Amino acid sequence: MSTNQSVKAAWDHLAGLPRPTLAELFAGDADRLSKLSTRFELGEGLGGIRFDWSKMHLDDAHIAGFEALAAAQDFDGRRAQLFGGEKINNTEGRAAEHTAQRGIGKDSSVEEAQALHQRTASLVAAIHEGALGEVKHLIHIGIGGSALGPALAIDALTRDGCVVEVHVVANIDGCALEAAFAKADPATTMIAVASKTFTTIETMTNAKSALNWLKENGVDDPYGRVVALTAAPEKAVEWGVDETRILPFPESVGGRYSLWSSIGFPVALALGFEEFAEFLSGAAVIDEHFANTSGADNLPLRAAFADQLYTHLRGCQTRACFAYDERLALLPDYLQQLEMESNGKSVTFDGAPLDGPSAPITWGGVGTDAQHAVFQLLHQGTITVPVDFIASIAPGDQLDPAHHRILLMNCFAQGAALMAGKDSADKSRSYPGNRPSATILVDDLSPASLGALIAFHEHRTFANAVLLGINPFDQFGVELGKQIANAIDQGEAVFDASTTALLAEAGLA
Ligand code: F6P
Where is the active site (predicted)? Predict the structure, then answer.
């Protein structure tokens, strides 16, 4: 059989499998919990993470079917290409070497990453020691992958205090930068310009305004306060940044996978480089697991089996992630870019049209807030939304333990309610149940466990791409809008009647 035939046969087999309810699955297999709920140890003194997929419709038959699909899509081969630094991003002719930043990958790439991390560590130490004067604030300017990761990690890990306060600014809307200015003192503020390409219009415009702000507020040498985080160091030099304050990262690290590179500088500056190194180590533990574990024992691959079950076999167009932890409030935003920019594609690796859906829409929020806002649809709406609940056993707060107890009770209650449902003679008070959820429970939120959580999702995204036969590492879908915005700026383009009228009304034409 050709690859295409074996892939089709695997999907056909999966589509034909029986569809027991969750209640039937639990009743029919006494070992269900131990098969589908797994504790993953992060290492000595680092605690662990429980991954529980038992409330999802995975069963032995589906797992075997998905393992056959993974084999047909040459999962082992693709994974070896990823870790071997091969040009797995075929449309851009590049490797995807984010794991090398965490110490796992091609030797030469790991060595290069370590040397670059050393550069970051030295600059962080110099700033902490006062070599650049007093630094209390960092305005980190970047967008997409150059902002979402730093924003998540800073928000998650600095609540107990930090060495330097970081304000992440992404939007070109000047209100975003003004909000950061309002919190910072120009005399003690540094600017990080984070851009893989060092050309992104939002970032470069914000960076220029931040320099003006420093100058207008008495800083004689504003460029002396700038750090550039980029894969295009020559552009940063051209723009005016001194080479000693340029922290490069390799082209082979994709934007939405770049938090582990020098794009993580604000995390290291806020917390100290040692904590940043722990964050990298936590991710590396998942890398080792993902690289060396076969079949459904491989946790990111098992998560992808569940994802494909709902997206491909059950037609679910969205998946939701609810963090029952205020510190992870930005995780759904981070996952949106990771999953939708990676796998929101319509063609396969070979450029053929994709037969079936690609990535679902990733959305979510924070619990318990979301329970009082959007959970109505999850429980009683007409569509099924597979949900991930993410929580920490140890609290992030110092208040009355009642807070954390109620938080976790609610988290677990939601998963139980979605699955069990409840019948009532009054149909508007009836809950259909049999609705899927997974629970990811960390012992404690720390740099290592956050690193592991993010790396788990990266590999889950990659595993989904392999099952679908698509390239998760390009993002051509974002280009057309950028080109048209540029054309408007240049006054070059001719538009449809609606756009022309809007431009005229806003005074842009
Ligand atoms: O427009 C999409 C994108 O290219 C993302 O993939 C990327 O993370 C973001 O823009 C920012 O790009 P850069 O880091 O080059 O400024």
Answer: 341, 372, 482
**Which residues form the catalytic set?**
341, 372, 482
Q: What is the ipTM of this complex?
A: 0.98
Ramachandran area for residue 71 (φ above 0: left; ψ -120 to 50: alpha; else beta): alpha
Q: Is the CB of 145 under 6 A from ligand 1?
A: yes
CA angle (469, 472, 473) in 5-degree steps: 135
CATH topology of domain 1-73+277-474: Rossmann fold (3.40.50)
CA of 101 relative to ligand 1 center, distance in Å: 19
Strand partners, 140: 168, 192
pTM for the full predicted model: 0.97
Half-sphere exposure of 49 (CA within 13 A, CB side): 26
Question: How many whole angstroms from 194 Cα to the centroid of ligand 1?
Answer: 10
Domain with CATH 3.40.50.10490 in the chain: 1-73+277-474, 102-271
Residue nearest to atom 16 of ligand 1 (CA): 195
Place of tokens 């091969």: 86
Q: Per residue of the chain (509 residues), what is the pLDDT tens digit? A: 778 899 999 999 999 999 999 999 999 999 999 999 999 999 999 999 999 999 999 999 999 999 999 999 999 999 999 999 999 999 999 999 999 999 999 999 999 999 999 999 999 999 999 999 999 999 999 999 999 999 999 999 999 889 999 999 999 999 999 999 999 999 999 999 999 999 999 999 999 999 999 999 999 999 999 999 999 999 999 999 999 999 999 999 999 999 999 999 999 999 999 999 999 999 999 999 999 999 999 999 999 999 999 999 999 999 999 999 999 999 999 999 999 999 999 999 999 999 899 999 999 999 999 999 999 999 999 999 999 999 999 999 999 999 999 999 999 999 999 999 999 999 999 999 999 999 999 999 999 999 999 999 999 999 999 999 999 999 999 888 888 888 887 877 778 899 889 988 998 87
Q: What is the DSSP letter of 385?
A: -
Residue bearing tokens 């036969």: 469
Best residue for ligand 1 mutational test, from 251, 338, 461, 478 (most atoms within 8 Å of Cβ): 478
**DSSP type of residue 138:** E
